Amino acid sequence: MSLIVRNVEAADVTKVAELMHKYIVGFYNNPWPGDDSIDELIQTLLEKEEGIQFVVEKDGELVGFSTLYFSRSTMKAQKITVMNDFFVLEPYRNTKVESLLFMTCQKYTQDMGFSHMTWITSAENKRAQQFFDQAGAVQGNWMSYSIV
Q1: What is the pLDDT averaged over residues 91-105?
Q2: Is the pLDDT of residue 9 over 80?
Q3: Cα–Cα dist 57/68, whole Å
Q4: Residue limits of the N-acetyltransferase domain (predicted)?
Q5: Which CATH code of 3.40.630.30, 3.30.565.10, 3.40.980.10, 3.30.40.10 fits the domain covering 3-134?
Q6: pLDDT digits over 40-76, tens only?
Q7: What is the 3-state secondary structure (H, E, C) of 9-42?
Q8: pTM of this prediction?
Q9: b/e for 55-85, b at 16 or more Cβ within 10 A?
Q10: Rounded to 5 degrees, what are φ and ψ at 96?
């Protein structure tokens, strides 16, 4: 079995967009932002200035992806990464695939000099919360809000 976690490359755009569709529409039941918007987002992330995407490739097929955005923490006065997306296909959850993808995000954060990585997950996503707890993550004290 060949298992690789790597940066998204230009040749991956179509397959990454397919994974993002499964994540946005299939997993979170949100409306699809549109092919053009997703392609533009992936292209922006390929530049690695605002963020970066990683994929998990198993035996030549993409089976998961994560997105880190670059930001700053006023509280720490340092650069941070925000793991905005973390998704693996159902058969690969609770497997080495998931662990390697998460460790890649952590390692990138450390290696590139960011002070820490932060993220949110749905309150209903108990499986992900269990994974993050087992990975040694600490749940923060902040409440998440958004406005449209």
Answers
A1: 94
A2: yes
A3: 18
A4: 3-148
A5: 3.40.630.30
A6: 999 999 999 999 999 999 999 999 999 999 999 999 8
A7: CHHHHHHHHHHHHHHHHHHCCCCCCCHHHHHHHH
A8: 0.90
A9: bbbbeeebbbbbbbebeeeeeeeeebbbbeb
A10: -60, -30
